[in-house]
Specification:
The radius of gyration is 30 Å and the shape is elongated. The chain is an alpha+beta fold. The protein has helices at about 15-20, 30-50, 60, 70-90, 95-115, 120-135, 150-170, 185-195, 210-230, 245-255, 305-320, 330-340, 365-375, 390-405, 440-445, 480-490, 505-510, 520-535, 535-545, 565-575, 585; strands at about 1-5, 270-275, 280-290, 290-295, 300, 320-330, 345-355, 380-385, 430-435, 450-455, 460-470, 495-505, 550-560.
Length: about 625
């Protein structure tokens, strides 16, 4: 999906004006109302669950109302409270649909507060919030997020589980009215029956059975109605590159791809793109958990970057997404912060090796040199070729091997991974392979193939590491062997520079181990080493350092410090370290997601370089 507007504004708007236009918008009313709705929702739920949750002096007046309203009001209070809790996050994000629903629900909540709790104050609070929503309705204009109908299944499971737990509380908070001593199994059965509108085995004295029955029925009806709504509402699929988008991006990379080693990764087909009005620059992104996550620098002419960045920020504002950029260069970070008023934080360093300067000679390269020589004496040979020079049958074997040798259940990579290997459109990519003819290769579906490295172009004279995969039964050091082979073959292929892995917080690790490092830096380094048990922070840095690279800093661009935890979670989801996806058995049955069909298994990501360490 691309967004292109007429009239190129790049260079025509002063920087100060841009910062005012794109800086953080006032969010006082949406945040206040969203938080207040959370509080009111909790009060409504408590009012519906606990019969003694009454504090006002309106008992006498309320008692003249029809008695049947008691159970109905309890169920209404419970339903309104749960829905307000669900809507509170959408209100904080300026969502229009959440605003519409809240305007309907708050008066209903006021009625239930008055009838069941006999609370004038509770009713006044709900109506006051409704007034604020109506008065500031222009603040709630954000468009819906990308979604699919599979969210209905998630809603059914999560809300159903919540209803089951809340139902057990409802059944158990009337100990003085219980008939007998029902077991936990009886109470659970009563909840399950009640959610479907039937009478269960638990009995109560007086009208309590009606109150419990209506409350459980309301929870069941709420689960059913919200699930049906999510299942039948129109889909808003996530943005994907169209063929026209990809063609335009490739044209920009042909002219300006030398500027950023991550530029080619913009061609991932699970990313969306916004172009500058002139079409001379573009920003690629993915929306994850309400975060509009761009990666690397904008693609194209630097002079047109402000126009693409402006469109990116417009799109984020229209949907109330949190804007963020992962892995931009220092130049890119300066443009982003100048044009938007966002802040930047150093994220880590990219390892870049100049092929002309690389050599295995010298004491510093002794360990790598010895490992490579040992592996070569073991009978391994290497081949470094462009994808265009590899036959289709061999490419098919490489794809299958790369998929089979993936070390994680989830496909990893976003900002520094292409997500495919050997595609017909990627003939200018590079593949390095290690081979050894032995007894196992005769029976292997991959023949003598033992390890694979995949590189994407970095302009016309560079290449950037995409993935590392190796047979777990192969000798250790396959990745080192292939990196050395790629660097040695680079001059023959017309390559002068090679981008290796990205090392997060590299400078902190390097400075923290030096003599004279302060206590704060040492504590920070210790925390990073601890986290390396799960995220390969230290091991990836040490693996990169073997090849004596120069380090190019990379930055994360964000709006406010309070957005950083959310951006971090979204980035880990995008990179595949955290997954909330459906189980693989269910995911295989998903309908088409709008992505163009690929003729290969997905590839992987640069972070697997640490497997060789």
């Amino acid at each position: 999906m691309s967004v292109t507007l007429d009239g190129d504004k790049s260079g025509s708007v002063p920087n100060s004006a841009r910062k005012f236009v794109h800086g953080p918008r006032p969010e006082t009313v949406p945040v206040l109302v969203g938080t207040a709705c959370t509080v009111v929702g909790l009060i409504d739920v408590a009012a519906g669950v606990f019969p003694r949750f009454r504090h006002s002096r309106m008992h006498t007046l309320a008692e003249v109302l029809p008695g049947a309203l008691g159970p109905f009001a309890a169920a209404l209070s419970l339903s309104v409270g749960v829905l307000l809790l669900l809507l509170a996050h959408g209100l904080k994000r300026h969502k229009r649909r959440a605003w519409r629903a809240a305007v309907v629900l708050l008066p209903a909540g006021a009625l239930s507060q008055f009838v069941y709790r006999h609370s004038v104050l509770g009713a006044v609070v709900s109506l006051t919030l409704c007034y604020l929503l109506v008065r500031h309705r222009s603040e709630f204009a954000a468009l819906p997020d990308p979604r699919s109908r599979w969210r209905a299944l998630a809603n059914f499971v999560l809300l159903g589980a919540g209803s089951l737990g809340l139902g057990l509380v409802i059944v158990s908070v009337h100990p003085g009215r219980l008939v007998g001593n029902p077991s936990i199994v009886d109470r659970l059965q009563h909840v399950l029956y009640g959610l479907f509108g039937f009478e269960g085995p638990v009995e109560y004295a007086g009208v309590t059975s009606w109150t419990v029955g209506y409350s459980l029925g309301a929870l069941g009806l709420l689960t059913a109605v919200t699930t049906i709504y999510l299942a039948f509402r129109p889909e808003h699929p996530a943005a994907r590159l169209t063929e026209d988008d990809e063609t335009r991006l490739r044209a920009l990379l042909d002219r300006h791809g030398r500027r950023d080693s991550l530029g080619h990764f913009a061609l991932r087909r699970d990313k969306g793109v916004v172009f500058s009005p002139s079409g001379k620059a573009a920003v690629c992104y993915r929306v994850v958990s309400g975060v509009m996550l761009a990666s690397g620098d904008p693609i194209g002419d630097v002079e047109a970057w402000p126009g693409a960045i402006e469109r990116f920020m417009d799109e984020a504002r229209a949907h109330a997404w949190t804007p963020a950029v992962m892995g931009c260069s220092e130049t890119g970070g300066e443009v982003w912060t100048r044009e938007t008023g966002l802040d930047a934080l150093e994220l880590g360093d990219e390892a870049v090796v100049d092929a002309a300067d690389f050599s295995l000679a010298g004491r510093a390269m002794r360990n790598v040199r010895q490992m490579v020589k040992r592996i070569e004496r073991g009978g391994y040979e290497t081949r470094v070729r462009r994808v265009a020079d590899i036959g289709e049958a061999e490419l098919a074997r490489i794809r299958r091997a790369a998929a089979e040798w993936r070390g994680t259940d989830n496909e990893r990579g976003f900002s520094m991974a292409l997500g495919r290997i050997g595609d017909g459109a990627d003939a200018d990519c590079f593949i390095a392979t290690a081979h050894k003819a032995d007894e196992q290769s005769a029976d292997s579906p991959y023949g003598d193939l033992k390890a694979v490295l995949h590189f994407v172009p970095w302009g016309t004279d560079g290449m950037s590491l995409d993935l590392m995969r190796r047979d777990r039964a192969a000798d250790p050091g396959m990745n080192e062997l292939l990196i050395v082979a790629s660097l040695q073959a680079a001059p023959r292929l017309g390559i002068t520079r090679v981008s290796l892995n990205f090392a997060m917080f590299r400078s902190a690790l390097a400075r923290g181990e030096k003599l004279g490092a302060g206590p704060v830096l040492r504590i920070w380094r210790g925390l990073l080493i601890f986290l390396s048990r799960w995220f390969q922070i230290e091991s990836l840095y040490k693996f990169n350092a073997k090849f004596r690279p120069r380090w190019e800093p990379r930055f994360v661009v964000y709006r406010t410090a309070r957005d950083l935890p959310r951006i971090s979670l979204a980035a880990m989801q995008a990179e595949g370290f955290v997954s909330f996806a459906l189980p693989r058995a269910l995911a295989r049955r998903l309908p088409g997601n709008g992505r163009r069909p690929c003729t290969h298994a997905p590839a992987g990501t640069r972070e697997h370089g640490a497997h060789a360490a």
